[in-house]
Amino acid sequence: MENNKQLRLGKINLVLLAVGFAIIVLGFALMTGSSTNIEFNPDIFSARRITIGPMISFFGFIFLVFAILYKPKSK
Length: 75
Prior knowledge:
75 residues; mainly alpha; elongated
């Protein structure tokens, strides 16, 4: 019996997963805002919160799929 302790994902895949996770965190950070105000705050409808942040998070999730499926070329 051969003792195979090799990871399913390679080092490159793990680095790409970390980058994808960072992109998702960035997108969620762009969507955050102050929630301590009791009165209406029209800044909740800013383009950063309702368009840019979700798009960056979405592309981060797409990048995670790519990072998992990426197969380096063998030499």
